[in-house]
Amino acid sequence: MKLQTRTNLNYILFSGITYIIVAVSFYIAIERVIYEEVDRRLLVEKRDFEHFIERNGSFDTRGYFVEDKIDVQVALSPRPIYFGDTLLLSRYDSQLIPFRQVSFDQKIGDELHRVNIRKSLIESDQLLKIITLVMLIVLCAGLFLLYVFQQRTSRKLWQPFYETLGRAKDFNVHQGERLILSPQMIYEFNELNIALNKMTDKILSDYQNLREFTENASHEIQTPLALINSRVEALIQDSGISGMHVAWIQDIHEATMRLSKLNHALLLLAKIENGQFQDAAFLDMKKIVESHLIGMEEMFALKSITVQSNLIEPFMISMNPVLADILITNLLNNVVKHSTKGGTTTIDLTSTRLSISNQGTLLTVDPLKLFERFQKENKATSSLGLGLAIVRKICEISNLRINYEYKEGVHTLTLDKYTQS
Amino acid sequence: MKVLVIEDERVLAEGICGFLGKEGFVCEKVATYKDAVEKIHLYAYDCIIVDINLPDGIGFDLIEALKKVKSTAGIIVISARNAVEDKIRSLDLGSDDYLTKPFHLSELNARVKSIMRRRNFGGVNEIDFEEIKINFNSRKVFVGPREVQLSRKEYDLLIYFISNKEIALTKASMAEHLWGDNMDSADSFDILYSHVKNLRKKLTERGAHDYIHSIYGIGYKFGKS
User: Fold this and answer.
1) CATH, residue B68
2) Which among B80, B104, B191 is the nearest to A222, CB-wise?
3) Domain holding B167: CATH number?
4) Are residues B91 and B186 in the same domain?
5) I need a labelling partner for B87 at 20 to 30 A (CA). Which of A32, A161, A196, A328 fits?
6) In chain A, which residue's Cα lies nearest the Cα of B182?
7) For position B200, what pLDDT does the model report?
8) Banded model confidence at residue B16, pLDDT cuts 50, 70, 90
9) pLDDT tens digit sequence for A310-325
C-alpha cells in the first residue's frame, strides 16, 4: 500500500466519522433552539389567550379558523402547565403533522377548562432538515475538494522522494558511478538525499579499496613467487645436489607454480567480479569452440575421448573476447579432467544453446555447490577447483544461464543465451 | 651479446643474470628507472628485459625512450600484471615479448634467443647442433642431409631444447612453453611425455644421437653429456 493511499484512507475515514458526529449534534442543537423558540411563542400566545378571556369572559373556537390552533375542553381535574409534542391528522389530506403544544388549565366562567395551544412544526422541521442536508452537502464537497487537492499536492510533494528512490534502485556498485542526488527544498528529503549520498560514497570507496587491495595483493604475491622460482631453477641447474634434494626442490617448484596459478585464477575471479572485463565484442561461439577443439585434440586423444561435435549454426553473443576464450577453455578442460577414459563427449551448439556432456561417475560434490569455489571432485588432483566458479562468473556477466545435469552416467553442462524479452 | 635487465627485485635480477650469463650473454642489471635511462643512452644492448613496475617510473616509458633513441635492441617486458591491456600496450609500443611473473628462467632464455635469432640472422636463419640443423624460416629440421618430419608441438619442443642446451628443464616449464598456462598440469605432463618420446624417436630414426636425457623427478636435459 502506498503511503499516499494510506494517508488518504485514514483521512477519509476520520472525516466521515467526524462529519456524522457533527451533523447529529448540529441537528440536535438546532432542534433544541427551534423548540425553545416555539415554546416561547406558545407562552406568549397563552398570555394573549388569558388576556382575551379576562376581557371577554368566554372563548369561541369557531372564530378561530387556523387549523387546530386552539383546543379548549372541559378539564376533569387540574393539571400543571405542560409542553408536549403531538401528531395531528391534517384536515385536508390524511397526513400526520407534528405539532408542539402547551396545555394549561384556565377558568372560563366557573368551569375549569383545559386549553391546548398548538403550533405546527412542519416548517421548522423542514427547515431543520434542509439546513442539515445543505450542511452535509457542503461538508462533503469540501471533503472531496480537499481530497483532490491533497492528491495533487502530495504527488508533487513526494516527487523528489520517488526520484531519490528510483536513483537508489538503479545504483550499482559495480559500475562505480556515484549516486548524485540534488539538494531539495523539503528538509526531510534533503536529509535523506544527503544521507544516501554519504552512504553510497562510502560503499563505493570501500568497494574500490577492496578491489585495489585484492589486485595489489595478488600482484605483490607474484613477485616473491617469481623470486622463489628463479632460485629454485638455479638450484635445479646445480649439479652438486643429491637425488633426494632434487625431488624436494622439484616439489617446491611445483608448489610455487601451483600457488601462482591459484593466485592468477583468484585474481581473474576478482577482476570479473569487479567488472573489469566490460568491453564486449560480437562473437561467434561456434568459431571459438571449433578452434579450441582443434587446440585440444591431443588432450582428447591422450584420454581416448571421442568428441562428437554437432555445431549446427552460429551462436552469436556479445561478450568480452578474453572471457569467451577462458569460458570455453575451462569447459573443455573440465571435460578432459572428468571424462572417463575412452568415453564419448558430445558438444551440441545451436544459435542459443551450447551443451557439453561427458561420461563420468556420479559426483561426490553436491551438484548445487558445483559452481562454488574450491569444490573439487577429486581432492588429490592438481586441479585448482576454480574452473567452474570462473565459468559461472563469466556466464553471470555475459547474459548466459548455466545448468548442470546428470543422467545415466552422463554429465551435461548447458549454456543458454538469455533471450531479450 | 649484451643484455640489460631492468628489475628492482634484486634476487630476481640476479637470477636472470645468472641464468643468462651461463648462456654466454653479457648481462647488466639496474634497479631503477633513472639508472635504466642512463644506461640506455650510454650503451647499445642487444636485448633489454624490462619490468613494468619500477620504484621511480613505469617500464612503458622506457620502451618509448628506447624507440626514441632508435635502439635496435629486442625488448622483453616482464610484469606481475597478467592483464591483456598491458600485453597489448607493450606490444603496441614496440616490445617484442611479454612475460608474466612468475616465469621460468628457461622460458625467458628461449624467448631472448628467439628474439636474437629474429634480429641477428637476417635472411639466413639457421641453427646447427651437431648433426641436427634447424631452418627457422621454413620450420624444417634436418639430421645430416635428411629431413625429419615433426609435428608443430615437436618442433616447438626441439626449439625449446636447442635454446636451453645443457640446462635441466622442468616438466612444468616445458608444458607451459607448449600450451601456455591454460593446461591442467597433470594431463599435460602425460602429453609432454609422449611428445618427447616421439621427438626422440624421430630424431634417432634419422640417425641422430639421442641428446634428450631424462632427469628423474625433474624433467629433461638436452645436450651431449
Assistant:
1) 3.40.50.2300
2) B80
3) 1.10.10.10
4) no
5) A328
6) A329
7) 93
8) very high
9) 888 888 888 888 889 8
Class for domain A187-273, per CATH?
mainly alpha
Distances (CA, A) of A64 to A105, A106, A299, B24: 19, 18, 129, 150
Domain range holding B60? Answer: 2-120
CB-based contact A230 B19, cutoff 8 Å: yes
Residue B123's SS3 state is coil
Give tens-digit pLDDT for B32-84.
999 999 998 888 898 999 998 888 988 899 999 888 888 888 999 998 877 77
Same domain? B60 vs B88: yes
pLDDT band at A64, cuts 50/70/90? Answer: low
Do residue B116 and residue B136 come from a single domain? no
Number of A/B CB contacts below 8 angstroms equals: 106
CB A136 within 8 A of CB A23: yes
Question: Hey, are the CB atoms on B182 and A234 less than 8 Å from each other?
Answer: no
- Least Cα separation, residue B1 to chain A (angstroms): 21
Q: What are the residue boundaries of the structural domains of chain A, listed by start?
A: 3-142, 187-273, 281-417
Span A86-99, pLDDT tens digits: 888 777 777 888 88
Tell me, yes or no, if A227 comes closer than 8 A to chain B by beta carbon. yes
Fold of A281-417: Heat Shock Protein 90 (3.30.565)
Same domain, B101 and B131: no
> Would the CB atoms of B217 and A246 count as touching at under 8 Å?
yes
Quick one: how far is CA A103 from the chain centroid?
Answer: 72
A223/B12 touch (CB, cutoff 8 Å), yes or no: yes
CB proximity A172 to B under 8 Å = no
CA distance B5 to chain A (A): 14
Name the residue among A227, A234, A302 with its Cβ closest to that of B18.
Answer: A234
Sheet holding B26-30, edge to edge: B26-30, B2-6, B47-51, B74-79, B97-100
Average pLDDT of span B132-141: 87
A293 touches chain B (CB under 8 A): no
A243 pLDDT tier (thresholds 50, 70, 90):
confident
Q: In chain A, helix, strand, coil percent, each to 5?
A: 55, 20, 25
Distance from CA of A373 to the nearest CA of B (A): 17
Tell if the CB–CB gap between A237 and B101 is shorter than 8 Å. Answer: no
Q: What is the pLDDT of residue B31?
A: 93
Q: Within this chain, do residues B19 and B85 fall inside the same structural domain, yes or no?
A: yes
Number of structural domains found in chain B: 2
B153 and B69 inside one domain = no
Q: Are residues B102 and B186 in the same domain?
A: no
Which of B120, B138, B156 terminates a domain? The answer is B120
- Looking at CA atoms only, how far is residue B73 from chain A in angstroms? 24
Nearest to residue A232, comparing CAs of B19, B185, B75? B19
Kindly write down the DSSP assignment for every residue of B46-68, as one continuous string: SEEEEESEETTEEHHHHHHHHHH
Same-domain pairing of B114 and B176: no
What ipTM was estimated for this complex?
0.78
The DSSP 8-state label assigned to residue B156 in this structure reads: H
Question: For B137-145, what is the mean pLDDT?
Answer: 87
Which residue, among A289, A263, A270, has the nearest Cα to A356 in the 3D structure?
A289
Are residues B187 and A302, on separate chains, in Cβ contact within 8 Å? Answer: yes
Last residue of a domain, one of B76, B96, B120: B120
Assign B32 to helix, strand or coil: coil
pTM above 0.80, yes or no: no
